[in-house]
Design goal:
Layout (H helix, E strand, L loop, with lengths): L12 E5 L4 H12 L3 E6 L7 H5 L7 E4 L5 H11 L3 E4 L6 H6 L1 H20 L6 E5 L25 H21 L4 E6 L3 E2 L9 H10 L4 E3 L5 E2 L2 E2 L1 H16 L1 H4 L1 E4 L8 E2 H12 L4 E3 L18 H7 L7 H17 L4 H14 L3
Parallel strand pairs: 1-2, 1-4, 2-3, 4-5, 5-6, 6-11, 7-10, 8-13
Antiparallel strand pairs: 9-12
Helix pairs in contact: 3-5, 5-6, 7-10, 10-12, 12-13
Length: 356
């Protein structure tokens, strides 16, 4: 059991923006286990809301639908529910979609974050705000050592740019309005995997869908490396961070990386091979004719030294264990027809028990 967050969240009023998304659903479920009073806001339509509803979370938390780009609705909702803690996850989360809809991406990821910050500025209840951005908020420096929190922000695609903008907003609002008053932090993570992710143009969901339909798996950018981690890893980081800035905002506010241990990156091709091996069947081929070509960093790694030293957070699973955990969820739900909520709760419990 995690001594850092155990008992802290009991009866705390916690708002999760983007609650109906992949990360949001896992976070909602975990907070319920910890005894929190969970509030969520989402946006219809949401392409990846299946997990949220399959877990029955619409009946377990207080849920409201509105567009986070509307300041008045955002502010009114926060004023109404009076949360102690906010996890801001609502976003357009896909690089692929950011090329097709750049204005929407900047609008949701940047202005949405701005509206949360502005609403918290006038809130009398919020003591802790964690804004989730991305490991792709950094300007590419072609380093193999991993990005540090004080490295230059930037990005060469609309998604990365929108997250860099959000980071700047978080920093300026903290320095101008929240310093020594409210704990405000940004959390940078990416390439999470886990059961229940059905987003299109993502490696694991696309692979699982192909395996389900017994189709050949087409792999794009097979040699690209990413710091793959199970979704529970960064979520635990967010939970620890929210507690730290709640109790000591002047010391823990700021930006934090949540990634894998050094040099644990794995290629896209190797990930798919592992998924097929654990699934027990399947064929793959490299897709040499990529219809939609766009820029992505070939190698991406985060330096997590700061989080390890000051938050006492570190990854629990290696890449192989993360893949096993993920595929096991899909196999039990899809093949064995097991209850998704039961499997999810069991996996969160197993993960918590693995923390020393």
């Amino acid at each position: 059991m995690d001594k850092i967050i155990n008992k802290f969240y009991k009866n705390k009023k916690v708002l999760i923006t983007g609650a109906t998304g992949f990360k949001g659903a896992w976070l909602c479920q975990w907070l319920l286990i910890l005894g929190a009073k969970v509030f969520g806001c989402g946006f219809n339509p949401n392409k990846n809301k299946d997990l949220f509803y399959s877990l029955g979370l619409d009946k377990k938390i207080s849920l409201n639908f509105f567009d986070i780009r509307e300041l008045k609705k955002t502010k009114d909702y926060i004023d109404k529910i009076k949360p102690d803690i906010i996890f801001h996850l609502a976003a357009q989360p896909l690089i692929y979609d950011s090329y097709k809809k750049p204005f929407l991406t900047y609008n949701v990821n940047s202005i949405g974050t701005l509206n949360i910050l502005e609403s918290v500025r006038f809130s009398k209840s919020v003591k802790s705000l964690v804004c989730i951005t991305s490991d792709k908020c950094y300007s590419n420096n072609f380093s193999t050592k991993g990005f540090k929190e004080d490295d230059k922000l930037g990005g060469d695609d609309p998604y990365s740019g929108s997250k860099a903008c959000a980071e700047i907003m978080v920093k300026t609002y903290y320095e101008s309005f929240f310093k020594n008053k409210i704990g405000v932090a940004s959390a940078r993570a990416g390439n999470v995997i886990g059961g229940g992710d059905w987003s299109p143009n993502r490696l694991i969901p696309d692979t699982i869908n192909s395996l389900q339909k017994k189709k050949i798996i087409f792999v794009r950018n097979p040699n690209f490396n990413r710091p793959w981690q199970h979704v529970l890893e960064p979520l635990r980081g967010y939970l620890i961070l929210a507690k730290k800035i709640f109790n000591e905002p002047e010391y823990y506010s700021g930006s934090w990386n949540f990634g894998t241990e050094k040099n644990t990156i794995t290629s896209v091709l190797e990930i798919v091979k592992q998924v097929i091996l654990i699934w027990g069947s399947g064929k793959l081929t490299v897709n040499k004719k990529n219809k939609f070509k766009f820029y992505e960093q070939k190698n991406l790694q985060l330096n997590i030294s700061k989080s390890k030293k000051f938050l006492k957070w570190k990854p629990i699973f290696n890449v192989k264990k993360s893949i096993i955990f993920t595929v096991d969820w899909y196999k039990k739900v899809i093949i064995n027809k097991s209850n998704p909520a039961k499997i999810t709760v069991n996996q969160i419990t197993e993960y918590m028990n693995a923390i020393k």
